[in-house]
Amino acid sequence: MKKNSPPLSVKPSKLTEYLKNLALLTKNTGHLFLIAGDQKLEHLNSDFVGPQIAPEDNDPEHFFRIAAASNGGVLATHLGLISKYGANYRNLPYIVKINGKTNLGPNEEKDSSLPLWSVAEIVNFKKQSGLKIGAIGYTLYLGGKYEAQMLAEAAKAIYEAHQAGLLAILWVYPRGKNVKEEDIHTIAGGAGVAACLDADFVKIKYPYGGKDKKQTALKFQEATAAAGRTKVICVGGSKQPAKEILAFLKLQLEIGQSSGLAIGRNLHQRPLEEATRLAQAISAIILKNASLKEAENIYLNKKTAAKKGTGKFLGLF
Amino acid sequence: MKKNSPPLSVKPSKLTEYLKNLALLTKNTGHLFLIAGDQKLEHLNSDFVGPQIAPEDNDPEHFFRIAAASNGGVLATHLGLISKYGANYRNLPYIVKINGKTNLGPNEEKDSSLPLWSVAEIVNFKKQSGLKIGAIGYTLYLGGKYEAQMLAEAAKAIYEAHQAGLLAILWVYPRGKNVKEEDIHTIAGGAGVAACLDADFVKIKYPYGGKDKKQTALKFQEATAAAGRTKVICVGGSKQPAKEILAFLKLQLEIGQSSGLAIGRNLHQRPLEEATRLAQAISAIILKNASLKEAENIYLNKKTAAKKGTGKFLGLF
Amino acid sequence: MKKNSPPLSVKPSKLTEYLKNLALLTKNTGHLFLIAGDQKLEHLNSDFVGPQIAPEDNDPEHFFRIAAASNGGVLATHLGLISKYGANYRNLPYIVKINGKTNLGPNEEKDSSLPLWSVAEIVNFKKQSGLKIGAIGYTLYLGGKYEAQMLAEAAKAIYEAHQAGLLAILWVYPRGKNVKEEDIHTIAGGAGVAACLDADFVKIKYPYGGKDKKQTALKFQEATAAAGRTKVICVGGSKQPAKEILAFLKLQLEIGQSSGLAIGRNLHQRPLEEATRLAQAISAIILKNASLKEAENIYLNKKTAAKKGTGKFLGLF
Amino acid sequence: MKKNSPPLSVKPSKLTEYLKNLALLTKNTGHLFLIAGDQKLEHLNSDFVGPQIAPEDNDPEHFFRIAAASNGGVLATHLGLISKYGANYRNLPYIVKINGKTNLGPNEEKDSSLPLWSVAEIVNFKKQSGLKIGAIGYTLYLGGKYEAQMLAEAAKAIYEAHQAGLLAILWVYPRGKNVKEEDIHTIAGGAGVAACLDADFVKIKYPYGGKDKKQTALKFQEATAAAGRTKVICVGGSKQPAKEILAFLKLQLEIGQSSGLAIGRNLHQRPLEEATRLAQAISAIILKNASLKEAENIYLNKKTAAKKGTGKFLGLF
Amino acid sequence: MKKNSPPLSVKPSKLTEYLKNLALLTKNTGHLFLIAGDQKLEHLNSDFVGPQIAPEDNDPEHFFRIAAASNGGVLATHLGLISKYGANYRNLPYIVKINGKTNLGPNEEKDSSLPLWSVAEIVNFKKQSGLKIGAIGYTLYLGGKYEAQMLAEAAKAIYEAHQAGLLAILWVYPRGKNVKEEDIHTIAGGAGVAACLDADFVKIKYPYGGKDKKQTALKFQEATAAAGRTKVICVGGSKQPAKEILAFLKLQLEIGQSSGLAIGRNLHQRPLEEATRLAQAISAIILKNASLKEAENIYLNKKTAAKKGTGKFLGLF
Question: Which residues from chain D sit within 8 angstroms of residue C125, using beta carbons?
Fold first, then answer.
């Protein structure tokens, strides 16, 4: 696992706060299990109602229920939902996603997304609500008409987050006519941009479609290396069987050198009971270094306690 | 009815003020009867002079006269009109609509609408005028060229309103070439966006054209569920007979789980006397849980006093 | 005449100042005689040099000379000219026009016009110069590419003017491909927008081309009614014989319910001596309720003193 | 010559400073001899290296050397050059050109030019450097896509300059598809815009190509009259023989009612020795009212001392 | 070598700081050896992984390792990397590149690049980190759609840097359809723009493709002369053999009158050991005036100590 020290852009008087937030989000492991709850804005209702989707998914509280039961997942969502449900989920760690856009517009415009809340507003919200907000999240589209503006907004948000002792997570997606979005070279480039911008974690695509899973994980090292001391978490991708998710995750962490997973639809489209089992299985792998077998048992609800991780974590904690 | 607690984005020192405003706007019911008076800007004079329109509708004071006689309606209009007539209508509760645009431009540009007044200006205006202003209103077009800008403006206005102890009402309209605006899925998506943005109420389209009215109201539950703890009020739609309006309203509230109605042309294009009877009938349903029959009698001016509501209100109040 | 009270957006501590400015601009009548001196920017030199134009019109001081001799006209022009000539015309009341554009660009761009000076700068200029500045003026184009921006700028300027105790005059022109600019319905719509924005006076087009002058004035009531408590002044239109101007004006005030006239080229393209006679005749009608005959005599320089107005003014003063 | 008083937009406490700067720039004559040194940005290296251009012109210091030897010329250039060479030319009066653009872009974009430095930055630079900075300069393109923005920036810069006791010089160029840039009517329109914006001096085109030079100068009166109390200086135009320059200048001042000249390439493309003689000849005409013969002798370096001007200067000084 | 004094835009109270930074960056020689580490953002991963590229180049720390071993090179890179690695490289002098963009977008948009960090943020970062940050860097594209904006941002950044006692380095690239980017005339024009903007150093293209290397270096004098007192450093160009790089560099400095070199891919695509030898050879030429032979020996690791420079440095130090 990547060894690192806190970025120098953290205001010295906020360093303790930063380390506390890092510990909060990663359960002292340096790894991050991010539960993505920003699709209500990003995809409107398409991800929440449909033939393969659990009916309870249409209630925004579904995110909170899953996260609360996940044994260590961090809920990343927009301020509005946290403002409305946070009082009932005071123990959850949060990443406040500060930008977002719908899937309605023409493609060109879809790459534009202004910050909806400033970091100062998030800091104020954290203080007055008393919630466990550990980071801000920002989605950055590269290659589009608004790249210049988005790079500037991302850099500013990260800087301000560090000044305030918060972490900053980037979602980075290279886009454009001739851009091969699934190409590892392109993905690695986006990871490098996150490093240049001082992000703590970067969420990037993972080439799930590769034929050989181990080879894919090996190739993915290009991206985790390019990110330098910025840690990489992989997107969960389109809906997959639970077993597949767990297997990929194990390879991403152990071979691909990733530092966690961001998962959305693969969790919340499942009924709460199943989503909980899956979340706990993922959590065991990411945060407790459980074996694939142990994780599968958690998902299948077999009462084999996950062994304590083998202590490979060599990071800050 | 939806049970909820105040959003955590309300500044703690303004919580009493927020609850007072919520009580003011909903008459302690949690339901909202919004009288839409923003069409003088939105539609120029087209809604105010014409063959089926009462001559008195061309006088902007018509809005105020109806609202004052409505037994609980809240007037939502632009600051200019409130500034000019408010001194004569000091008991009316107001929602100040902070953006708006005319119907003149090309469609693409019609989806752009900047805030005309900041929340700070509304707060200052409330203080110096002493008027009963309980909320700001903002129209959000999704899917257009200016979506990113509008999302940001909406989020900012809501945040600032909550900081000041005001409520925030969103008008949300998904738009665009391939967008089916009347589709419940699309409508529900817009409602979910309002939840992500921390709106207190969201005004959305209602599919009035459906064949089976009960089925339509049932389907509408997708939207009210997607909105989570943000309450939904339906638009009044194009001109309909009074009886139809009341019947739809009853179904929206009881089956569709909505929390009120926003009505404009269906009120103000009628002469004051008739508009008053209709407004009082609507008010009885929304705020006093009157039966359809009772409401019809109010509209027909039969002196059957509306029975006190059956106490289904389980919300904050 | 319209009866009204000051807008509630006037800062209470500036109410006396506002009423003083209203009295200054309207000579305590509630009516406004606006001498438009903003064409040097709007039309470059086209209105100032030509075969039918008095040679002295090319000197910007011509505006000031006419206004000073007009018996009550208010000069509306840009800050630059007031800054250069104001020291010699300290008794003139002024409206500082805060935006403007030339007639050079493509039509689309012609509908864009940013504020050249902020209200704060006008207030500071008033204070340091000691000039009698009673209002700011803003031209608002509706229907164009920049409508959203202009609506926002107009609302802001009016709000700030009222906060400072100044009046705000809007020039409102609906524009666009399918917009019938001379249609009374369109004109009335623009007047209503001014009301929504809290303007004190709105300058709108008058359909001078109508066949029956009385009918036209009657139809114009749609616009004055739509403006609510915002007073309406008519544009002077293209060059007409003096007698025509006076006749139209009388009908506009008495039948059309307007509150004054804004006149530019019809005054300044005449030699000073004739412009003075015409201005005084206009002034007599607007501010002293002179009869058409009396006004014609003033224009013809016949020494029949205008009778004192018949006291129809029922407004604030 | 134009008689005038300082604009009322000058902050009263800065009036002495303003008058001092006016005296500095015009050597107490009210006339201005502006040495244009802004082409390094405007034209890149095209004006500085070439077959008809003195090799020393490629050194930016050439501007300073000429100005220092010119007997009264004011150097107008960008802040960067003044910052680098000013310490060696402390006695030179400066106009800091605050905007500019290159000649590379497509024509449409060439009409856009944002301020590079704010007036506050110029004021601070003046204070800390101790240099004799008397004015800011701004180039305004009318008729282009960015007209609205440029008008606003120009007005703001002039207002702020006057607040700080600095003068403001506008370069005004009407542009566009159907605009006849050399037409006196167009030129006069631009001059009038400068007056509306409160400029102290305006630099405009002069129709050098006219057949009859006296007639041209007479026609030019339209522009100087349209400018009102804003003084007019003519551009130097493309490269001409020295004798021509001097002859035109004399006619511009005496018949055309201009108040000076702005000269760039016609000076700096000459070797220092010749440029000095030409600058001194120009200076004698503008600032000392020398006869054409006297000026020619200065250029030809004949030791006939220029007689003291015949005292026609009737301006502020 | 160019003789100069500090720009007058340096705040007097920060002059000592400025001189200290100049000494830091140039090792008291007035020459600059810039190690360009901004391609991770500019070129994504294309410059860091490939057949001719050392595997270690994919780790962002590679930049730091080379710079630390270079004997005098200054690392120019984005804030994110400095924030993450700076604690381990406290003795390195840094130039913080404050803007940048990827190579993904359409060409037109590629010429847009907003500042990612303000100068105030850099100053704060320097203070809290204690790192040796001597300058900010900014890439300016001339001729594109965003030229006006970029010129303004560049001027502002330079001004603010000087106010804070930092140096400012510009990367200047003229662009556009009919622009010959390799033409010395065009290059010189860009250098002149940097002078107008008050840059301390300007990094420009060098026409490496010329047939006669000495002639090319002679021609390059046009650019160094046009830059006036702004010093010129040449870009390193595409990958070349080490010997070629050193030979070009010697000619650039001695004949072309340049003041240093900026080198990126030519260094970091080499393995650390070779990159170190090359960097030290370059450093010897730039900072110690080593002969070409001496430099080649350093590159070849022959233990001939570079003689002390022959003292041609006549600059500020």
Answer: 8-9
What secondary structure letter does DSSP report for E203?
E
* Residues of chain E predicted below pLDDT 70: 1-4, 106-110, 303-317
Side chain identity at residue B29, one-letter code:
T
C165 pLDDT higher than 70? yes
Looking at the DSSP assignment, which residues form a beta bridge with residue B234?
A: B204, B261
3-state secondary structure of D64: helix
Residue B304, exposed/middle/buried by CB under 10 A (0-12, 13-18, 19+)? exposed
Place of tokens 């702020």: D160
Task: Give the model's pLDDT for residue B79.
Answer: 98
- pLDDT at residue A110, rounded to an integer: 60
C-alpha closest to that of D170 among D205, D208, D144:
D205
In this prediction, residue E109 carries a pLDDT of 55
Rounded to whole angstroms, how far apart are CA atoms E268 and E264? 6
DSSP class of E71: S
Do E and C touch, counting CB pairs below 8 Å (3 needed)? no
The size of the C-D interface in CB pairs under 8 A is 143
**In sequence order, what DSSP letters do the residues of B96-154 get, joined into one string?**
EE-----S-S-HHHHT----SS-HHHHHHHHHHH--EEEEEEEEEEESSTTHHHHHHHH
Global confidence as pTM: 0.94
Distance of CA B114 to the CA centre of its chain: 20
Give the DSSP H or E segment for E135: strand E132-142
Report the C-alpha gap between B162 and B6 in whole angstroms: 10
DSSP C211: S
Among B151, B179, B192, select the one facing A116 at the smallest CB separation. B151
CB contact under 8 A, D80 and E198: yes
> DSSP string of C235-259?
E--S---HHHHHHHHHHHHHTS---
Q: Determine the residue type at E114.
A: L
On the 0-12 / 13-18 / 19+ scale of CB atoms within 10 A, A291 is middle
DSSP D133-181: EEEEEEEEEESSTTHHHHHHHHHHHHHHHHHTT-EEEEEEEE-STT--T
Average pLDDT, rounded, for chain A? 92
Q: Which residues contact A64 (CB under 8 A, 6 or more apart)?
A: A75, A81, A85, A88, A89, A92
The per-residue pLDDT for D4 is 58
CA distance C151 to C232: 19
Tell whether the model's pLDDT for residue A303 goes beyond 70: no
Q: Are A1 and A286 in contact (CB under 8 A)?
A: no
Cβ–Cβ < 8 Å for C314, C272: no
Catalytic positions of B are: 173, 203
Closest chain E C-alpha to A226 CA, distance in angstroms = 5
Question: Is residue D203 among the annotated active site residues?
Answer: yes
Chain C residues whose C-beta sits inside 8 Å of any chain B C-beta? 4-5, 7-9, 11-12, 142-145, 147-149, 151-152, 155-156, 158-159, 162, 174-177, 179, 185-186, 188-190, 192-199, 222, 225-226, 228-230
Owner of token pair 């071979």:
A255
C183/C175 Cα distance (integer angstroms): 12
* Beta carbons of D225 and C59 less than 8 Å apart: yes
Work out the number of other CB atoms within 10 angstroms of the CB of residue C46.
16
Strand C74-78 vs strand C93-97: parallel, antiparallel, or unpaired? Answer: parallel
C-alpha to C-alpha distance for B145 and B164, rounded to whole angstroms: 30
Q: Quick one: tokens of A296?
A: 């599968």
Does an H or E element contain A295, and which? helix A292-299
Residue A231 tokens read as 């840690």
CA distance D62 to D270: 10
Are the beta carbons of A44 and B155 separated by less than 8 Å? no
CB contact under 8 A, E104 and A230: no
Enter the ipTM.
0.93
